[in-house]
Amino acid sequence: MASTPTPLPRKRRGLIVEDLTDTRAWLVQTLGTAFDGIAISEAATFQAARDWIAAQPRTFADPDANSVHDIALIDIGLPDGNGIDLIRMLANDHPQILPVVTTIYDDDAHLFDAIAAGAKGYLLKDQHADTLVGYLHRIDAGEPPLSPSIAQRMLTHFAKRSVVDADVDAEASLTPRELDILRLLGRGLRVAEAARVLGLTPHTVAGYVKTVYRKLNISSRAEAAIEAVRRGLV
Amino acid sequence: MTHWLPNRIMQTAALICVGACILVFWLALHQPWLGVTLQAQPDGNGVRVVAVDPDGPARMLPVPSRLIAIGAADASDGRIALEPGDLSEEPDMIESFNAIARFMERQSALARLLSQPRVVLYAEAERGAYEVIVSPARARPLSDLPSAFWVQLVTGLGSLLLGAWVLALRPRDLPTRLFTLAGVMILISAYAAAIYSARELAVDGALFRALSALNHIGALGFGAAMISLFLVYPRRLVQPRVLWIPLAVTEAILAADILRLQDDQTLVSQLPTLLYMLAIVVLVGVQWFATRRDPRGRAALRWLGLSVIVGAGAFVVLIIAPILVNAAPVMQQGHAFGFFLLIYAGLALGVSRYRLFDLDEWAFRVMFYTGGVALLLAVDALLLYVMHLQHDVSFSIALLALAFIYLPARDTLRARLQPRGRVESHELFREVVDVTFAASAQERSERWHGLLRRLFDPLVMTPLEHAVADIEIGQEGLEVRLPAVADTPSLQLRYPWRGQKLFGSSDRDLARELVRLMRYVEVSRDAFERGGVEERRRIARDLHDDVGARLLSGLYKTEVTDTHRVLRDALADIRTIVSGLSADHLPLGQVIAALRHEAGERLAAAGIELQWPLAAADESARLLDYRVYRSIVSAHREIVSNVIRHAGATQVDVTVTQEEHTLSITIADDGIGIDPTDANGRADGNGLRGIIRRLADLGGSCTVLPAARGSTIRISLPLAFHAAPGADSAAEPNMKSVEPHIQGVSPRPASSYSLPADAARRTFDRS
After folding, report:
1. Residue B194 has what pLDDT?
2. Measured between CB atoms, which of A104, A149, A188 is closest to B596?
3. Which of A70, A125, B104, B350 could share a disulfide with B356, CB 3.0–4.6 Å?
4. Which pLDDT score is estimated for B732?
5. Contact criterion met (CB < 8 Å) for B590 and A127
6. In the structure, what pLDDT confidence band is assigned to residue B629 with cuts at 50, 70 and 90?
7. Nearest by CB to A148, which of B567, B568, B594?
8. Structure confidence by residue, pLDDT tens digits, B566-599
């Protein structure tokens, strides 16, 4: 692989995938407010979003933490497709682009699969623009939100999983500390409160949350592979 | 007899058969033996020798030749010239009793002669006359018995065993008893004839007479039994006591025959036989007419009548009728006995297809179990015996063959002997689920019909006017009535398996299991659907009461920021509904988690700090009823909204305490505080008013506590939801302890004061 020229300040790019025109315009505005000078593309359909993604250069390594991320805000319920497929494409082939779900629901039924597919965070569309900007910054900094129901669903997921293949893949199993954090978030505590209870900094706790996101993605990919083998697809 | 198990009856019959066979073999083999096969010579001069046993006493006799006479070797006067009549297979063919008496005398004389140590055979062949001195063997070898003997042996065996089979299953029914009696009669008749028909040349006259009498008793007894059978089966044409008539007639004829009351044998033997046969045919015809409206009886008659007429009729036509017209029988009588087996083959078919004698597949199961298992054991014993003889290399090979060929084959055979279900039980369950979960009532009904068709293949399937509660088999298995399931009324199924079989007990069991499964799955499905309907109803009410009311109030707001707030609140409500907070029951811990999360997010957005430490209630798995947790969520949300909008607070402290059956949530802020007597600036009409009403309905309260700074509101609610407050409080002792406090008779210290629901309503009402 060709060596990439180091820290040449790159212009941040953004993608908004949203079928509602007004909402899209508002999201474009909010994303612009959050990140100065970001180059925003818009897609009203699954098809358009897929074309945009296909046109992006593929990267094969995780970008290092200091590099500038591109951000894709993706609505899951698109008229011509499922946003989760877009998230999966980004997570698999374009790790420099952070997929973020935009939704009006923050429950597990709507978000768990998206996170498992590789979403790096979610935003509630009915929040104030400045609140949203705050969340965007935090996601960008690797501090994704986690609602109680998703935290509980994750606990259930990893508990079930550990029964099946406890030590097969440490990459996809949770540490006791991560479990503690999930339990507290599952009780409705916010990151800062959980940090206080555990005697950690909020930044550290947020980092754990990000790790849990990643592990869920890894474990669901592994499960998909196992499932494919089981069904004889591979 | 009625207490006998089917197996026991069949085993007894088998023992009788073994005994009869031993007797027959003994009598047939314990005769002097020359080892010649003789045939009648038409010209009357001696008999023809057609074959000679190469190992027999008469092996020196040339073939072909003519045996003229037999004489004693020691006395010259003992010579008896042979006549064609001496070889007569059946003395019945001799017309007069005088002729029979002469025949019997000659038989006795010949038998006496042959029992001498040495006899002279006078024979003539092409090259001249021979006189051969032979020593007749004491006994005849088994292999020398002619084929006719074996046919008669098997016929007698089959008739008795199959008769016993029917009797074993229906020991108390008159028709089966008569049918079994007929089988016994065939055995007697056939075995008696087997002994004398298979003789080489002669048996003792006395034995011959006795056997002949037995043969007649058997033949006419069979006829009488069959006549009686068709008098009462399938339709009962006469009262059972009338059956003494054929019995008496038969006895009279037999007496005349055996006691020689009448010289012409045809009158007391062949003619009655023929008349009996005619009577059987006539009775079958009468039964045919009598069963014209009884398909089941007609079906049974078709098989039984046909097989009796063909079986016994063939015998009569081929053997008896020619004698009456002085012609030679068409075939050997011994072989013709085989026709009687037709009757029993017809019986087996009739039982399997038309429930002859009300028997069913289970009858075959009984036969298979008794016969099949005995057969397997016999084969096993034989194998062990053969193994025992072999002690060389071939033994190992045989052992391998046994392991790899016989044992699997034996298992397969054994599996065949077991009754098989037409539809496997797991398959049945899948079918039932498919029927029950079909989309529409019409489709369910169609699939139910389809399943029944697959299982029973009836010719007619009609809805019943009068519903039945359980499976009913009607008209002796011709139809079955099923209770109403699968959105289909009670059904009547007729002529199962395209009219080729009738419903038996196994079908009833299957149908019962089927209906039981259908009902079980339907009840489960209904409960599931009811749950779904309930939940939809709750969601509809939430949408109407919460979201609808909010959006409506948003319509009337003039300030855009107010409209925004209303819309956000409405979205929050929707979020609550969608996120599963519409379940029938939720654990307390989960409700608190949702409240904490929501309050935290909202207060953070408004720049207000939330302090809500974890408490015991957070871990509570206690299930809250929908109405209880909804009112908690609504009240809490409303109070937090009020703080955000009006209090000007910087921090909110929430504490949750769960006493035994009461949940209290205290929300304290450091804002401007409220005047309990005039909450004008803090209340926002509809929302809180509705919440207070909901709390009061559930026996809860909303209390404004005195605070040094800001305001402190406590909501408390009994966790045990009472469906109709006061209606059956006795059944809910927990409520009683809570009630005084609900009513405003507060157990709290005097320093705090409580607003009973009414007062609170009044207080917050005035916006």
Report:
1. 92
2. A188
3. B350
4. 37
5. no
6. confident
7. B594
8. 888 888 888 877 766 666 778 888 889 989 988 9
pLDDT at B217: 92
Contact yes or no for B615/B563 (Cβ under 8 A)? no
Strands laid side by side in the B701-705 sheet? B609-611, B651-658, B662-669, B712-718, B701-705
Amino acid symbol at B443: E
Vertex A230, ends A226 and A234: CA angle to 5°? Answer: 80
Instruction: Name which of B605, B614, B618 is nearest A131 (Cβ-Cβ).
Output: B605
Mean pLDDT score, B38-45: 78
Residue B719: phi and psi, rounded to 5, are -80, -30
| ipTM confidence score | 0.84
- DSSP codes, A137-181: HHHHTT-----HHHHHHHHHHHHHHHHH-TTT-GGGS--HHHHHH
The verdict on B596 touching A (C-beta cutoff 8 Å) is yes
A131 near B CB under 8 A: yes
What is the rounded distance in angstroms from the CA atom of residue B717 to the CA atom of residue B715? 7
Give B417-422 contacts, CB < 8 A, sequence gap 24+: B417/B368, B417/B369, B417/B372, B417/B373, B419/B361, B419/B362, B419/B365, B419/B506, B421/B510, B422/B455, B422/B510
Cα gap B727→B712, rounded to integer Å: 34
C-alpha B671/C-alpha B65 separation (Å) is 143
Q: Contact B691/B635 with Cβ under 8 angstroms?
A: yes
Q: Does B574 touch chain A (CB under 8 A)?
A: yes
* Residue to test with chain A: of B550, B579, B592, B656, most A Cβ within 10 A: B579
Q: Are B354 and B307 in contact (CB under 8 A)?
A: no
Query: Which one-letter DSSP state was computed for residue B469?
Result: S
Q: How far apart are CA B292 and CA B287, in angstroms?
A: 9
**A110 class by beta-carbon count within 10 Å (0-12 exposed, 13-18 middle, 19+ buried):** buried
- CB burial of residue B362 (10 Å; 0-12, 13-18, 19+): middle
B594 touches chain A (CB under 8 A): yes
**What pLDDT does residue B679 have?**
45
Minimum CA–CA partner of A103 in chain B: B575
**Which residue from B467, B447, B440, B423 is spatially nearest to B518, judged by alpha carbons?**
B447
Q: Identify the CA nearest to B272 among candidates B243, B247, B249.
A: B249
Taking the Cβ of residue B616 and every Cβ of chain A, the question of whether any pair is shorter than 8 Å is answered with: no
Burial readout B85-115 (b: 16 or more C-beta within 10 A, e: otherwise): bbbbbbbbbbeebeebeebbebbbbbbbbbe
Handedness of CA B319, B322, B326, B330 (dihedral sign): negative
- Report chain B residues whose CB lies below 8 A from the CB of A104: 571, 574-575
Say whether pTM exceeds 0.90. Answer: no
Tell me the C-alpha to C-alpha distance, in Å, between residue B294 and each of B271, B457, B480, B481, B567: 34, 21, 16, 19, 79
Segment B710-731 shows an average pLDDT of 63
For residue A148, the chain B residues in CB contact (below 8 A) are: 590, 593-594, 596-597
Both tokens assigned to B559? 């300030």
CA B309 to CA A29: how far, in whole Å? 103
Q: How many CB atoms lie within 10 A of CB A125?
A: 19
**Closest to B640 measured CA to CA, from B732, B709, B565, B534:** B565
Instruction: Count each helix (H run) and each strand (E run) in chain A, helices first.
Output: 9, 7
Residue of chain B whose alpha carbon sits nearest to that of A146 = B597
| Percent of chain B at pLDDT exceeding 90 | 9
Select from B578, B593, B614 the Cβ nearest to the Cβ of A105: B578
The Cα-based distances of B443 to B436, B449, B517 in angstroms read 9, 10, 18
- Looking at the DSSP bridge assignments, the partners of residue B701 are B716
What does the pLDDT look like over A109-147, one tens digit per residue? 778 889 888 898 888 888 888 888 988 998 888 888 888
